[in-house]
Amino acid sequence: MKDITLTAAEEKLAALIWRAAPLASPDLVALAEREMDWKKSTTYTVLKKLCDKGVFKNENANVSVVLTRDEQIARQSRRYVEDTFGGSLPKFITSFFGGRKLTPEQAAELKCLIEEHEGGGNHG
What we know:
Blueprint: H1 8-20, E1 23-24, H2 25-36, H3 40-52, E2 56-59, E3 62-65, H4 69-85, H5 89-97, H6 104-117
Antiparallel strand pairs: 1-3, 2-3
């Protein structure tokens, strides 16, 4: 899995595209101008960078999603845990809670997630 880092400008445009895709690139230009006051050249420059990074595709003036928002967030999250906590999920969770207690609902949800992603068998 290729690590994709987005600049602030790329994240702004990506958010618009994820919300509206698929869409025609002229419609994206109009949307970026209306919502972010961007010029056509800025939109196309940033869009090209996003396409080069493999996040979107712009073919025949149609912009489509290659990497979903959830997939990008998952990549960023894994990179953060890797860089900050040496890849240790327990260290990340300990830091995240910082002494706070889980609600019974949160604990039950986490237990289900752990069982769902645990290796070695079906936990249903």
